[in-house]
Amino acid sequence: MGQKLQPDWLRAVLAGKGRVRPYLHTRMPIFGDANAAPLAADLLVADGAPDADPAQAFAAGDAAAGRKLLGTEGGVGCITCHGIGDRKGLCMEALSLTGAAQRYQPAWFKHNLIAPMEARPGTLMPSFW
């Protein structure tokens, strides 16, 4: 989890304040605020979380280019499976892309796009890159 998740997001999930899979009935255990920070820190160390690299950080960009990239007309079709905002994916319900920059470590996200089966064995996500 330390390679994949941003520290603030990991703490929020462990404290019961972060959720991105409303379609699942199984809930993540809630460890509470007092336990979430130390547990998140331990998980980050155990997984070898990357040091912050400003060159890898997510940056605000061109919204029109982002819509085209995520869409099905000239893009890679992320919206086929992934929802954005209050809109669900077109054919299935995968994780929403809303808040992805706050959830994922940039290096892990890039690796997931380039080699999804390496980053998450068994995923249905195809490699477009």
Percent in helix = 25-40%
Radius of gyration: 16 Å
The SSE order reads: HHHHHH
Strand content: under 5%
Structural class, from secondary structure content? mainly alpha
Shape: globular
Low-confidence stretches: none
Arithmetic mean of pLDDT? 85
Main pleated sheet = none
Write the layout of secondary structure elements.
Elements: H1 7-14, H2 33-46, H3 63-70, H4 100-103, H5 106-114, H6 116-119
Give a structural overview.
The protein contains six helices and no strands. The protein has helices spanning 7-14, 33-46, 63-70, 100-103, 106-114, 116-119.
Brief overview:
By secondary structure, the protein is an all-alpha fold.
List keywords for this structure.
129 residues, mainly alpha, 6 helices, 36% helix
